[in-house]
């Protein structure tokens, strides 16, 4: 438990200004992390987000759920991923968009920040790939009479079918929500604070169908695996034929760039402008 300005223990959340300082201090630690540790930590995050995505698939494979109930329950299930990231500790590409404020404060270099982003993106992809392999080997897609596998295909197809700019703007909106949730995590004093604080923004972005590049590193490959494994194709909705390697890369390019804009500009730079020290 941290201390108040009077030296007494405090359970109050950090103020926005204190959060900004914590974000900048975290950026310094991130760029100083040795590459092997950074890569493995990023793999943890990719797997954690994949677990949340798997939970989403299993929950939403229940066709009896109404539209609203499915969106709400699926969104809450997906929150597992960020809960694990924030509470267990790992490096998430989308959350690291906030490092831009540290660069603006001259506490880290721009090159060091971009290097961190590149390593963490690759690590997240590797971790998500490991999660896909484990899920496939464990037969999880067989749940609900194979409906989980069918749902995985449908989710992947729905994420690849829209035009590139639609996916890009959905990526922007997604990481606005995610980075605000990460800032809530920085403000929290306890695990309970972190968990409760992120539920609404994370479940909201999932329910709205926004695009999170790290989540899609799991959603899209697992959908492709389900398709190649012969699970029944969805009878309606997006065309499952788009679920292929090219479709995966198509979505990830739009989602990644959108996530950078949403997190770095609309949250990171905006809060630096409002709360930063603006050092020359």
From TrEMBL:
Give the protein family: Belongs to the FNT transporter (TC 1.A.16) family.
Q: Which chain regions cross the lipid bilayer? A: 38-60, 72-93, 114-141, 167-186, 198-228, 248-274
Q: Which Gene3D superfamilies match?
A: Glycerol uptake facilitator protein
Subcellular localization is given as:
Membrane
Q: How does it sit in the membrane?
A: Multi-pass membrane protein
Q: Provide the GO MF annotations for this entry.
A: formate transmembrane transporter activity
Tell me, what's a Pfam family for it?
A: Form_Nir_trans
At the top level, the lineage of the source is: Bacteria
Q: What is its main location?
A: membrane
Keywords, A to Z, come to: Membrane, Transmembrane, Transmembrane helix
Q: Which GO terms describe its cellular component?
A: plasma membrane
Q: Which PANTHER family match?
A: FORMATE TRANSPORTER-RELATED, FORMATE_NITRATE FAMILY TRANSPORTER (EUROFUNG)
User: Which InterPro entries does the record cross-reference, listed alphabetically?
Assistant: Aquaporin-like, For/NO2_transpt, For/NO2_transpt_CS
Protein name per Swiss-Prot or TrEMBL: Formate transporter FocA
């Amino acid at each position: 438990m941290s201390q108040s300005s009077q030296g007494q223990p405090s359970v109050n959340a950090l103020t926005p200004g204190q959060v900004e300082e914590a974000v900048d201090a975290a950026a310094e630690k991130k760029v100083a992390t040795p590459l092997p540790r950074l890569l493995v930590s990023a793999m943890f995050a990719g797997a954690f987000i994949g677990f949340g995505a798997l939970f989403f698939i299993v929950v939403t494979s229940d066709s009896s759920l109404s539209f609203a109930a499915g969106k709400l329950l699926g969104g809450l299930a997906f929150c597992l991923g960020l809960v694990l990231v924030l509470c267990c500790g790992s490096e998430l590409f989308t959350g690291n968009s906030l490092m831009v404020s540290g660069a603006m404060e001259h506490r880290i270099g721009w090159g060091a920040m971009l290097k961190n982003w590149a390593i963490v993106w690759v690590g997240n992809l590797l971790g998500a790939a490991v999660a896909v392999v484990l899920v496939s080997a464990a037969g999880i897609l067989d749940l609900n009479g194979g409906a989980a596998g069918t749902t995985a295909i449908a989710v992947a197809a729905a994420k690849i079918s829209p035009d590139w700019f639609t996916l890009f703007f959905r990526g922007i909106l997604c990481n606005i929500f995610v980075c605000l949730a990460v800032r809530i995590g920085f403000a929290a004093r306890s695990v309970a604070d972190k968990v409760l604080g992120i539920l609404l923004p994370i479940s909201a972005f999932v329910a709205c169908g926004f695009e999170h590049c790290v989540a899609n590193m799991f959603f899209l490959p697992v959908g492709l695996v389900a398709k190649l494994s012969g699970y029944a194709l969805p009878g309606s909705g997006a065309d499952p034929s788009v679920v292929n390697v090219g479709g995966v890369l198509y979505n990830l390019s739009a989602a990644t760039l959108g996530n950078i804009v949403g997190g770095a500009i609309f949250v990171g730079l905006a809060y630096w402008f409002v709360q930063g020290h603006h050092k020359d």
